[in-house]
Amino acid sequence: MSQPVLICRPGERGEALAAALRERGESVESLNVMQLEALPETPEMRRIWLDIDQYHKIIVISPFAATCLSEALDRFWPQLPIGIDYYSVGSATAATLYDQLGVRVHVPAPSAGEDTSEALLALASLQQLGHQRILLVAGEGGRPLLAETLAERGAQVTRVAVYRRTFHPLEPALQTRLCSGNYRALIVTSSELLEHLAKWCNQAALNQPLIVSSRRLATLAGILGFCDLKVASGATPAALIAALETCDPQGADVDQGTY
Asked: Which GO terms describe its molecular function (predicted)?
């Protein structure tokens, strides 16, 4: 049997990636080390949802954040207010917003080459933001780049965390798989997940192909000691599979490098 592709993506997005890989004949194993959990609604969150029509722009960070926002707006706004511009870092988040709320979403230009906060911030409509109110819908933690840059450009920024990430140790069998380097490639699309997984990676794992979804993640991976980096053009299954196709079918030589 061919070596499996290890994927590290929670929820429906992980299932979609696994299905796309299997359709191409790949063996897949999921490293279920992170779960996404919606946060209980607080009085502050409720005030934000009730005042949603006061925002000029809403930026949604992830598909799960998009689902949480959609569920909240369904409760408080039977008909969405008009005049709000919606933004997302990636196409999967944009698709979730369109499917669940029916709104058009601004995303980074294809010429940016990848879906990142930096690419989103390059959009012309996010350059001059004086007197504009912007809502960031995200999970707990995460990078402050978007909020800080938008504020520097004149926006009044409100950030609401709608979910949390919970991390778990690898199952023993998957720890063995990872430490042995007996897999074709590892796919990771989140810095938090990459740092979490690095705890179980010895030199054999660090020598195996690692597919990441941005140059920023590749930089982090290099700092963590990963040696064989493939940077996909984004976090979609198509982009990740295209990067996988540049890997050796049998993975890297697990004996290369030094211990």
From this structure: uroporphyrinogen-III synthase activity
Q: State the residue for tokens 């740092």.
A: 195
Instruction: Give helix 11-23 / helix 237-244 axis angle, nearest 10°.
Output: 50
- The CA-atom distances, in angstroms, between 153 and each of 78, 147, 212 are 33, 10, 30
Tokens 């934000």 — which residue? 48
The phi, psi pair for 100, rounded to 5°, reads -95, -30
SS3 113: coil
Pairing of strands 28-30, 5-8: parallel
Q: What is the pTM of this model?
A: 0.83
Query: 89 and 189 in contact (C-beta within 8 Å)?
Result: no
Phi, psi at 95, each rounded to 5°? -65, -40
Q: Are 213 and 257 in contact (CB under 8 A)?
A: no
